[in-house]
Design a protein that fits this description.
The protein is 34% helix and 27% strand. The chain is of the alpha+beta class and 219 residues long. Helix 1 links the parallel strand 1 and strand 2 (34-38).
């Protein structure tokens, strides 16, 4: 997936000799979380956040606050998943893009990258979502794939959606099959089912048998 066509240059980086008031004015006019800053030679210096900008003295130059610059960026050949991760790690909705020579090329907008994510088969193809969990040292993606495909399901995607107390939670998108048989197989492999967006007949069956037994004992 080529991201280069999504590089934007609508907003030019400010110079470090510009005043803080110039930066504050940009934030008042825009919805970006950060604005990139460069020096007089065109070298990218980092980004200033909107939160910090409104705490600075409006009459001082940006270079007086160079310590507040956040140096995050991605390359023009960075994988789109890594770009998405960079957005998340820096709590930003704008991501500066540099080439291998550290030349500033422009920036990505978060909404554009999320839009690409939504176009992947994980979201665009019809299927069911299943969330399972198992010990961090005990699960494997090869095992997850084998369980899904041995039940005639088609694995459309899977990712680690949570890690807590040495337990990994795995979100899976499955096509071509109902979930009941797949869920039962996951249980046999000691996975805990967190949720499945189709009817779980295994649980329903247990509830029915439990209700029947309760009625029988109440007679």
């Amino acid at each position: 997936m080529n991201l280069s066509e999504y590089i934007i240059n609508d907003i030019k980086p400010l110079l470090n000799t510009d005043l803080v008031s110039d930066l504050q004015l940009m934030f008042n006019q825009l919805t970006y979380s950060h604005i990139p800053v460069k020096d007089e030679h065109g070298t990218y210096l980092g980004c200033i956040s909107e939160t910090d900008a409104h705490c600075f003295d409006a009459n001082k130059p940006l270079q007086d606050y160079r310590h507040a610059g956040e140096g995050f960026f991605v390359r023009d050949n960075t994988n789109w998943l890594d770009v998405l991760e960079a957005f998340a790690q820096n709590s930003a909705n704008i991501m500066p893009v540099l080439n291998v020579s550290n030349k500033y090329l422009g920036y990505y907008e978060l909404n554009d990258v999320i839009g690409l994510f939504n176009e992947t088969p994980f979201f665009s193809e019809n299927g069911a979502i299943l969330i399972v969990e198992k010990g961090l040292q005990d699960y494997s993606f090869s095992e997850v794939s084998q369980i899904v495909e041995s039940n005639d399901g088609k694995l459309l995607g899977a990712f680690i959606s949570k890690i807590e107390n040495d337990v990994a939670q795995i979100t899976i998108k499955i096509g071509n099959s109902g979930l009941s048989d797949i869920m039962q197989t996951f249980r046999r492999y000691s996975y805990n089912i967190v949720s499945g967006h189709e009817e779980d007949s295994y649980i329903d069956g247990l509830k029915e048998r439990s209700d029947y037994l309760k009625k029988y004992l109440d007679i």
